[in-house]
Amino acid sequence: MPAHTAAPSWGQRAFLALETGLNRCFGEQANPLYFLGALAFYLFWLVIFSGLYLYVFFETSVVQAYASVDALTHGQPYAGGLLRSLHRYASDALVLVLMLHMLRHFTFNRHRGFRWFSWVSGVVILWLVYASGVNGYMLPWDRLSQFVVTSTAEWFDVLPVLGGSMARNFISNAHVSDRLFSLLSFIHIGLPLGVMALLWVHTQRVPGARILPPRALMLGLLLTLCALSLLQPALSQAPADMATLTSMLAFDWWYLPVYALVAHWGPLQAWLLVITCSALLLALPWLGGRALASERTWTVAIGQENRVIRVRPGETLLDAGLREGLDLPFACRNGGCGLCKCTVLHGDVRLLPYQASALTAAERGAGLTLMCCAQASSDLAISYVPPHDPARQQPQTYQARVTHLELLAHDVMRVCLQIEDAKALRFQPGQYINIALPDGARRSFSFASPYRDGGSVDLHIRRVEGGRFTPGVFDNMRVDDVLHFEGPLGTFTLHEDSTQPIIFVAGSTGFAPVKCMVEHAFQTGMQRQMALYWGVRSRADLYLADLAAQWARAHSNFHFVPVLSEPAEQDHWVGRTGLVHQAILEDFPDLSGHQVYACGSVRMVQVAQSAFVHHGMLSDACFSDAFHLAAHG
Amino acid sequence: MAKPFSALVRYSLQCAAYAAFAAVIGYFSTAPPYRQRGENEAVLKLSFSHSGQLRFACRQRDAAELAKLQPNMRSAMDCPRERAAVRVELDMDGQALYRVSADPMGLQKDGAATVYRRLNIPAGTHHFSAGLADAADGLIHYRKELTVDLQAGQVIVIDFVTGSGGFVFTRG
In chain A, what residues touch B17 (CB-CB under 8 Å)? Predict the structure, then answer.
């Protein structure tokens, strides 16, 4: 289970060093650099709630705008004054946190591939936050407001459509009307609403996204901003007066640097710079770096969940698991806390940079890895300690309608199902479902055909005399009957990352998942050598032998060997006899270098596995799915 | 692995980190100050929106021209909508301060020509002379002169209002 570690870039090393220091101060589970997105959310809410209070007292008129803000600031310093300052400083901190958030994702290459949407929506959010902040500086109608409205108008006036008409609104006091403040207030509500909507979209694409940081951080940040508000309250400058222009302004460099550029470079040059920077930021996910598009998707089998999930190129195991709804242990998501450790049972991972304290060399040697930093570089099998009671995790349930019934043998029925909400069901060949009986009992059946668009699946159901479900399939089930099931379940899936020849071992209706795998292999053009050994009692049990023989004729890399354990005289059987695993060992005395997929009764699988290991098969090259017939099947 | 800090040290370091954060936020929230004009400078704003004269005079259509038009378009007079560009010459103390020629707005160039320009000028007494040409002949048809004493930071606005006889100088 090798793990390759990506060498950190200088930017990553800088972040890791800073994070190491902050880990020692704040602890790994409250390191602010691990919660930049959540901190931005929190600051945004602080801005919103403080702004709502300010808005109650704000007068939207030329004469009263300045006076109302000034009265709020000095008349109630304990509330309005404090909240005004908090509004200002939380907005400033929001810009800093957003920029750090984006810089960190860029540095750790977490903006490429499928993450492009979050990156692009993040860039749009950043600009909307800027626009909201700049707009906010227009409202108090002081000298800075005068500068911001005039500069904004002059900047926009170079655009062809406006051509100088916007700045005329601010050439003298007589030109400014009360309507301006209604418009500015409207924009100051509309833009944050846009930010809110985009934040929702932004986090929808991030599985398990936290929208609030740890409580300790929230409290610390709030106290810090309150302390800053008391020490350096946000105050208005002199009232706006279009008849004069002050020489110096107290300037908010978090929001207004572009206006300095407008003044010193010229409005057109500032537009070019802003547009170029925006285009560059938006294009970053597709510029340079490692091409994720050429990489492939891998599967991860999770033993205790009986699940197989897909990991997209560039996706960490944690993100993939959370996206699939798994209840995974995690906190920092950045290789700092070590909560998301898992054991890699099979396959290779590529580890992104992480804190050495989160995963020691000894732990790596023992096969442990950090799900938040591990990307699959082959199909994987992992296990982990779930953070909550596994009983809380309910598998997905579906409803299906019977569309076709076909008797394949005297005791095997092919049941075709049309699944409702089929788009949500994506299974791997080899997996199974649990059909729910009215009393809550479950009966397991493997998919007998690969996934088909439209959501139709096949099951091979063998009759168990005296059972509570299977006799009804033969005696009472009709087309259009409705079944409820949960799934897909099971980790018995085809490992397509290997080039080793495959030996399929099927016992009785264990042929169903093997059929699903083989047909999937044919569909995907797999060129590996495949041998199918199907062990049954008598010839009548080889219910799809003709199909398997037809596969062998059509595909030179496929070989079919039926094996009867108790052939009847009337079978006139001239083929292989005995136990199926013995037939395999006769043909393959050395099983090293082979992968074996065995599905059948528990006894068959156990005996075969043990015998195969004695003949050189590696334990991680044998995949099995053993079933037992329910006592009242 | 580094030895963990005691709780006292950890909280002290957290306070220091928060203080550094607040210091960075607080400082750049108001500083360094931004200079938008020189200490001894006044401001001149030239701003107007004025429709130039029609570029071409109306003329009578002859019978052949009328016959080529759709019946509902057969107006006897042909009056092109295009207006002349508006040209402004602004001098200060006998020196050219600003020259601009603004085209009419609109696809047909039949709208008003708009000019806005903010200029920082030295404070003190100045003699301004503003001229405007708004006809196809390009000649200055409007001119106004004014001597004014401007304090540092004071804004003088030069507007053009046809109903007021042309240029309007407004001091702050």
Answer: 22, 25-26
Q: Is the pLDDT score of B32 beyond 50? A: yes
Q: Are residues A96 and B24, on separate chains, in Cβ contact within 8 Å?
A: yes
My answer on whether A127 and A185 are in the same domain is yes
CATH number of the domain to which B134 belongs: 2.60.40
- Tokens read off for A256: 């207004």
If asked whether residues A94 and A216 sit together in one domain, one would say yes
Assigned domain for B13 exists: no
Q: Given an 8 Å threshold on Cβ–Cβ distance, is B1 in contact with A357?
A: yes
Give me the residues of A, 21-40, that contact B with CB < 8 A.
22, 24-27
Q: Of A551, A557, A555, nearest to A534 (Cα)?
A: A551
Amino acid at A361: A
pLDDT 10s digits, A453-502: 677 888 999 888 888 888 888 888 898 888 888 888 877 888 777 788 99
How many structural domains comprise chain B? 1
- Judge whether A163 is closer than 8 Å to chain B, CB to CB: yes
Residues facing residue A412 across a β-bridge? A409, A462
In terms of pTM, does the model score above 0.80?
A: no
Mapped onto helix, strand or coil, the DSSP state of residue A92 is helix
Residues whose CB is less than 8 angstroms from the CB of residue A490 and which lie 6 or more positions away in sequence, other chains included: A306, A308, A430, A431, A432, A446, A625
A399 to each of A378, A414, A422, A452, how far by Cα in Å? 33, 18, 9, 17
Question: In this structure, are residues A491 and A381 in contact, taking their beta carbons and an 8 Å threshold?
Answer: yes
